[in-house]
Amino acid sequence: MRVRLVDDRPPRASASYVLYWMIAARRTRASFALQRAREWAQALRLPLLVLEPLRAGYRWAADRHHAFVIQGMHDQAARLGALGVRYLPYVEPEPGAGQGLLAALAERAALVVTDDSPMFFLPRMIAAAGRRLGCRLEAIDGNGLLPLAATDRVFTRAHSFRAFLQKTLPEHLERVPAPDPLAGYELGAAKVPRAVLERWPMARASQLRDPGPLLATLPIDHAPAVVPLRGGEGAGLRRLSAFLDEGLDRYATARNHPDEDAGSGLSPYLHFGQVSVHGILHGLAQREGWTPASLGPPQGGAREGYWGMEPAAEAFLDELVTWREIGLNACAHQPHPERFESLPAWARATMAKHERDPRPYLVDLDALQAARSPDPLWNAAQRQLLVEGRIHNYLRMLWGKKIYEWSASGAEALERMLVLNDRWAVDGRDPNSTSGITWVLGRYDRAWGPERPIFGTLRTMTSESTRRKLRLRAYLERYGADQTVQTRLAL
Ligand SMILES: Cc1cc2nc3c(=O)[nH]c(=O)nc-3n(C[C@H](O)[C@H](O)[C@H](O)COP(=O)(O)OP(=O)(O)OC[C@H]3O[C@@H](n4cnc5c(N)ncnc54)[C@H](O)[C@@H]3O)c2cc1C
After folding, report:
1. Which of 307, 333, 359 is the last residue of a domain?
2. pLDDT tens readout for residues 106-131
3. Ligand 1 pocket, residue 256 CB under 6 Å
4. Which domain holds residue 60?
């Protein structure tokens, strides 16, 4: 169910290696795709070759995202090098320069294994490779606990998706990826023709260690500067253990308070596949002494009581599995979930009805981007996004609701949220970006009464009630000062 044959011809008889084209699961542990490539290599007695490319020419290519990926490449180079697996980290110097590299390597491959993903430009890229490579191409789905192919139904409410998960997950939890798919690797280092390496030079170890000078030469957006958070599988796994050891216990009670910063902080690592949902579940299971046998009976979509773990762990899993995977479901099975027309009819109707309601302010995109709105709390959240590439989870919802309030229409608000989030958030361009942003405009939600100006029956959120309900004094102190952002980003 996790293997999709993009090109189903048999493996090439005379070949030099098995090629793993690492494009979404950018890690070496708990990866179904790497495991599949290793299994093929073992069966054919051929060395494994790993190509990890990073393109320059996609929308939103920027320093902070590039750095996060390159820091991951540094980890891959160290780990695969130590295991004797040949690894090719390719950072494209200009848009289009990498064209032909995959095909040149595939010419000598028995087959190509890659990551399946419904995210961003990846489906188009995989489909194009399937048309061009002329060899077997397998795309392996390691996105969620639920395989994407387990259903083609599109879920419109978390409750019904949760009910579906509760019934179907047990069989999928029996087939988890090997924690270390490369354990005992002895197939040697693949040989790559010199001409290929001359035409497409790989990133050097020094560039992976310190990507700054390399980033400066790339024709990408330099305004979203590198963030303090380090990328890579190693940093992701350290974040996970710190969260399990020190953060999880207070997750359920403190997560909404900006001053507590009690989220796991794992979303950028999940986005780039540097940690996996299976790896996180494995860590949780060890901590909680949990096995799939601990699962309770389906709870008809109720949030508590299914996993058989402590309440904090169950709350965390509901975000990680229900909410993360409902977004994957939409991206995989709903045409264009990022478009305004894909929103529920009731939400579009209520926004249309209130489109002419006077707004207290209309704020243009440049002012929003520069954190110059009339609302200090919103500005603080936007500054956190500009400087750190993230917004505290609760404030992210408020951030979206205020953008709607300050835009001329729902469609304009959607476009602005996508631009701001995808340009600046390290975890942006994700299925969760689309689901979170469209949630602001009614997806996965219901109509709320009484009907109000501007929002109609969309759920409202206000800065005043947020300030009343949540602890955020330290947050405002930290992100309240204007100059930090203006000088650091030269906006
Ligand atoms: C307007 C808006 C935009 C958003 N944009 C993004 C985005 O670009 N990328 C992104 O990953 N998430 C996005 N989210 C969802 C959510 O805010 C983040 O996933 C979460 O804040 C990440 O912090 P964390 O890793 O500490 O989460 P934790 O609370 O520790 O949760 C663990 C994991 O569960 C998943 N998760 C948590 N909350 C949600 C949620 N509400 N919806 C879907 N999955 C969730 C994430 O993968 C997260 O890493 C957005 C939400 C909104 C309202």
Report:
1. 333
2. 999 999 999 999 998 999 999 999 99
3. no
4. 1-142
